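Example 9 (inverse folding). The structure is encoded as follows.
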């Protein structure tokens, strides 16, 4: 509960400063690791610039304790994580950050970063420690000249965790302002990363367009509500069906014409319906044939097994 209360900014947080000595003593004296973790977390939450963390580390001999936790490889992950968070807090003090860098803790964190690279929270807190130290000249020179921390930060620019990428980008921006050698390398790597992202986006768009073209080639054009159209509504050619519902002559095959006249489903021109049918306005359901079609029909003649090929036989008045 005390650790959770110390997380919140406000009038309550400064009250815990009076108990720093108790929390610091507990780190080395208490055997209950869970209790030690809570004390570490509470100290790490007291991120005030006015606290002399360098004095606290020396008075309570916390630096050897911190190095032991990070190097031993036998401590719980939660204890290691809270210790790293505490380092990020005490690095606010320039003198404390210098003592940390001189102790070789930066290289220890680099080794731990390599060992815990799958743990996003550990990686994030280590990157944050580098970010805090890079603000101070002495620790910045040690990080840039004596360690491979910048190279690891460049690799983390491509991490899947957005928070890790943000901290690394901010740290590298500071490094390249103070070191021309790293500036070119960082700039080139950021340029490559930007181009790779752009190429990936363009490639995805091209794949989507190719899929759309594929479906356009496979599927015919569809007109909404025109499933049974006999003609393309955008075409300029004549329609297959006339105003009275008859099929246009040019769309009637010769075989169909012969059969229609023979069975009475095609009506020759000039046909007059019976008087008792005149009161109906509905058109004759039979198709109308043109005079030209009938002339061709009689010139061709019917098969031997059909009706006689003479106009006199037909009872039509034309």
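The amino acid assigned to each position is listed next.
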């Amino acid at each position: 509960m005390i650790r959770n209360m110390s997380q919140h900014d406000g009038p309550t947080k400064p009250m815990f400063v009076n108990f720093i000595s108790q929390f610091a003593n507990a780190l080395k004296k208490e055997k209950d690791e869970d209790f030690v973790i809570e004390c570490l977390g509470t100290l790490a939450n007291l991120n005030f610039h006015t606290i002399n963390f360098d004095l606290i580390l020396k008075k309570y001999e916390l630096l050897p304790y911190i190095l032991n936790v990070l190097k031993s490889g036998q401590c719980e992950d939660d204890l290691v994580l809270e210790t790293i968070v505490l380092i990020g807090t005490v690095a606010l003090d320039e003198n404390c950050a210098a003592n940390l860098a001189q102790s070789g803790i930066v290289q220890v964190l680099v080794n731990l970063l390599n060992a815990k690279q799958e743990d996003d929270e550990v990686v994030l807190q280590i990157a944050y420690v580098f970010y805090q130290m890079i603000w101070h000249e002495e620790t910045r020179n040690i990080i840039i000249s004596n360690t491979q921390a910048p190279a690891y930060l460049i690799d983390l620019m491509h991490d899947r965790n957005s928070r890790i990428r943000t901290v690394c980008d901010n740290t590298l921006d500071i490094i390249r302002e103070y070191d021309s050698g790293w500036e070119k390398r960082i700039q080139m790597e950021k340029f490559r990363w930007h181009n790779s992202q752009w190429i990936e986006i363009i490639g995805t768009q091209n794949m989507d367009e190719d899929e759309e073209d594929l479906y356009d080639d496979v599927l015919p054009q569809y007109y909404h509500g025109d499933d049974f159209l006999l003609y393309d509504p955008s075409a300029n050619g004549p329609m297959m069906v006339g105003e009275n519902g008859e099929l246009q002559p040019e769309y009637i095959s010769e075989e169909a014409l012969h059969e229609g006249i023979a069975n009475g489903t095609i009506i020759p021109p000039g046909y007059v319906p019976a008087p008792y049918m005149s009161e109906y306005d509905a058109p004759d359901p039979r198709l109308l044939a043109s005079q030209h079609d009938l002339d061709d029909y009689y010139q061709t003649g019917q098969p031997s097994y059909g009706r006689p090929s003479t106009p006199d036989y037909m009872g039509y008045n034309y």
